[in-house]
Write a structure and sequence with these properties.
158 residues; alpha+beta; Immunoglobulin-like
Amino acid sequence: MTPMRPGLTVFLLALLLGACSSLIGRDPLKVAVAGIEPVAGAGMEMRLAVKLRIQNPNDEPVQFTGAALTMDVNGRELASGVSSDSGVVPRYGETVLTVPVTISAFSMLRQALGVMGGDDLKDLPYRVEGKLEGGRFGTHRFSAEGRFDLPGSAPGSR
């Protein structure tokens, strides 16, 4: 085994530092729920297609090879899902990604018990957390939150 030359060591160190510096200074992706649609489920599960609008406020495009997310409603986990779709969010651009999520019978029961326990069906808080997979150093974590009304929550409907 021969010792490394000093020039090669300096070159490798500079390459490593350059790779790390490219990860610094990136603004986080902005993610919002653009829509939720029912899809066919199986057994006692309910399935939804969650559409995420992903905005990239950076000067470089963001490539992704998959996504995962969980959705909480009214402080309780409701659904989770993954997608193996891949794509690119262009520099200073946006894209819409659809992630199928599953709501288990137990999650539905937990939410129903919350409603029976006095939770209001209006102005429910939700939170979506997840990640866009982009390789070892390219994973982007995100979260989005907001409020919505469930159908049938109009005044006098209860």
